[in-house]
Amino acid sequence: MTQQIVIIGAGECGGRAALSLRDRGFEGSITLIGSEPLAPYERPPLSKDAILFAAEPKFVAEVDGFASLAIDLRLGVSAAHIDRSRRVVSLSDGTFVPYDKLLLATGARPRALPAMTSLNGRVRTLRSHADAMDIRSCLGPGQRVAIIGGGFIGLELAASARKLGTSVTLIEGLPRILSRGVPAEIAAAVASRHRAEGVEILCDARIDKVEQTEDGVQVLLEDGSRIRADLVVVGIGSTPNTELAAEAGLAIDNGIAVDSHLQTSDPDIYAAGDCCSFPAAHYGGRHIRLESWRSAQEQGLLAAANMMGAQESGAAVPWFWSDQYDLTLQVAGLAEGATATVRRDLAAEAFILFHLAGDGRLLAASGIGPGNTISRDIRLAEMLIASAKTIDAAALAAPATKLKALLAA
Ligand SMILES: Cc1cc2nc3c(=O)[nH]c(=O)nc-3n(C[C@H](O)[C@H](O)[C@H](O)COP(=O)(O)OP(=O)(O)OC[C@H]3O[C@@H](n4cnc5c(N)ncnc54)[C@H](O)[C@@H]3O)c2cc1C
């Protein structure tokens, strides 16, 4: 019988899992171990409101909230080793915590540049609230930031930095920004908005080195050009935190490998959130790893249910959003393998691309638009993807077609 549950990683996923265990009536002990000093908080505001307004962390629940549910929240301490034979986790403070079921929710960390640490704090990454506050302190009128990497975090930071009056250069090594998971047409709309807001975007720009100067830092490109800045922020993707799992002998496959129940190769150990790779329902069970706020939440809840014996399988359609200026971009599903793409125009600056498989099933939908212009249709697209129905591409493209009607058909 499960009496003791230990969760390693007090982020979005670990925090939600702990709360959900109590919500579902688990009466045994819950220990939630987090290496950061703060109670679990949401990361999406870090590149948005935290930079813009120095917003306080948005907590999943406050320390008192966990205490009132008798969840033993241990902050500022890391899990150092898992002894699977004795079912004990040893912590960096020298203590040990026994478990019947263990959840790994260790998240991911930003990839770094090789020489970053020697650059006097002028080259940073953005993952924690402390990172956001440090970066924010270097932004504003008269300040120059160079952002390396044209992915979501780099672009969101570029938008926030511009709003604060900072001069922004974004350096992308590939021919276009957002080349991972976002269609070129949407990436072009994002790039053109950034340029209109004054961001200088350099594509196909390969970095030779980043070095300190007397008054700041400079990025030297292979073509000989140099970008001078007061701060460089590196946003070149993330690495899942799998070391603890690997050292414990668990299977790793671009993340801690889990099955549809989020169970690792050890049936008493689960993994969820950014750190795990899981079989994607609706996509033939191929293993994927997501870095998505909603997925971290959903998987936290699923892991909690399954640690209590539910045996439920994950069935969510992958979904991600990004806010830049007044634009919201959303991607639902996985477009790989699509043989046709149709465009649906919704309003000025708002459109959705639907990606269809050869047999007419909807695989993915990606859209961009001001405010929540695209939200309803993307939500319905998620349901169409999950339904695996054959859909008429022309009907999808026609703005007059109600997607709800396609779902009901
Ligand atoms: C700046 C930023 C903006 C984002 N914006 C969006 C967005 O707009 N939309 C969206 O969908 N997603 C967004 N995301 C992604 C989303 O926040 C993540 O997918 C989500 O936080 C993942 O949750 P997690 O709990 O799996 O991992 P995390 O939130 O990273 O939490 C993992 C925690 O585990 C801790 N930990 C790791 N190893 C150990 C150990 N050995 N012992 C103890 N603790 C450990 C870590 O310190 C961390 O606190 C953003 C992320 C960032 C960084």
Could you describe the 3D structure shown?
The protein is an alpha/beta fold. It folds into three domains: 4-109 and 238-307, FAD/NAD(P)-binding domain (3-Layer(bba) Sandwich), CATH 3.50.50; 112-234, FAD/NAD(P)-binding domain, CATH 3.50.50; 326-408, FAD/NAD-linked reductase, C-terminal dimerisation domain (Enolase-like, domain 1), CATH 3.30.390.30. Helix content is 24%, strand content 29%. The protein contains eleven helices and 26 strands. Strands 3-2-1-7-19 form a five-stranded parallel sheet. Helix 1 (12-23) runs parallel beside helix 8. The mean pLDDT is 96. Bound molecules: flavin-adenine dinucleotide. Flavin-adenine dinucleotide binds next to helix 1, strand 2, helix 8 and strand 22.
Structural features:
409 residues; alpha/beta; FAD/NAD(P)-binding domain; Enolase-like, domain 1; five-stranded parallel sheet; 11 helices; binds flavin-adenine dinucleotide
The rounded distance between the terminal residues' Cα atoms is 46 Å
The major sheet is characterized as:
5 strands, parallel
Q: How many helices?
A: 11
Query: What ligand species are in this complex?
Result: flavin-adenine dinucleotide
CATH superfamily of the largest domain: FAD/NAD(P)-binding domain
CATH architectural label of the largest domain:
3-Layer(bba) Sandwich
Secondary structure: helix percent: 10-25%
Q: Can you tell me the overall shape?
A: globular
Radius of gyration: 22 Å
